[in-house]
Amino acid sequence: MDITTHESAQVSPHDAAAVPASGRPLRVAVVVASNREGRFAPVIADWFVSRAAAHDDLDVDVIDLAGIDLPTTLSRDPSDATKAVLAQVSPRLAAADAFVVLTPEYNHSFPASLKNLIDWHGSEWHAKPVGFVSYGGMSGGLRAVEQLRQVFAEMHATTIRETVSFHGPWGQFDEDGQHKDPAAADSAAKALLNQLTWWAHALRDAKSVRPYAG
Ligand SMILES: Cc1cc2nc3c(=O)[nH]c(=O)nc-3n(C[C@H](O)[C@H](O)[C@H](O)COP(=O)(O)O)c2cc1C
């Protein structure tokens, strides 16, 4: 598995298209939704990326919204500064065959940073699968996930049934970010990734013979 981060990766959709779809690894964009100061998100992200490493047919690109400073004012004619920010992220969303969204729950929903990323884009999400890793208090972030399923349906995306959800994750990881009792979470991640890769292959194969009509 090849892991890239937003600091290092500038993926061209044209590069990805140069290799036959069936002959290249699945490109999975892992979107880290929280950009909150003092956030717990990096622990969840590092854990999930290590789980994805077990799948050697995945090319993982971590898109951390803490490093993507998109304005909340949407525009059809963005400024040069906004175009520069979009250039950091849009080609990577476009190049992805699948997404995994890592989201906490804020006030029974998902972070505004994530909605902003979704709203700035359109076709980048189309006809692709989206899986969720969530975390929060009693609900484990699942209320955020259920709302995201509605949003991603509007984005022509397919959401994956299996989820990973951490209920009060703060004491579950040691100082090195290792899960202290990993069996259940590892099993959930495996199920999510198995479903995600099935859908990603199926949709990529379908689009190679019949472009998505929208
Ligand atoms: C503004 C805000 C609202 C929150 N609302 C909820 C909530 O409704 N339900 C819940 O289970 N946890 C809630 N939490 C707890 C977060 O899910 C928890 O702090 C999580 O670690 C936040 O992710 P982050 O640290 O990566 O930003 C809230 C946290 C914040 C900051």
Automatic annotation (TrEMBL):
Entry superkingdom: Bacteria
InterPro entries, alphabetized: Flavoprotein-like_sf (IPR029039), FMN_Rdtase-like_dom (IPR005025), NAD(P)H-dep_reductase (IPR050712)
Residue ranges annotated for the NADPH-dependent FMN reductase-like domain, each copy included: 27-167
PANTHER family per UniProt: CHROMATE REDUCTASE, NAD(P)H-DEPENDENT FMN REDUCTASE LOT6
Protein name as it appears in the record: NAD(P)H-dependent oxidoreductase
Organism taxonomic ancestry: Bacteria, Bacillati, Actinomycetota, Actinomycetes, Kitasatosporales
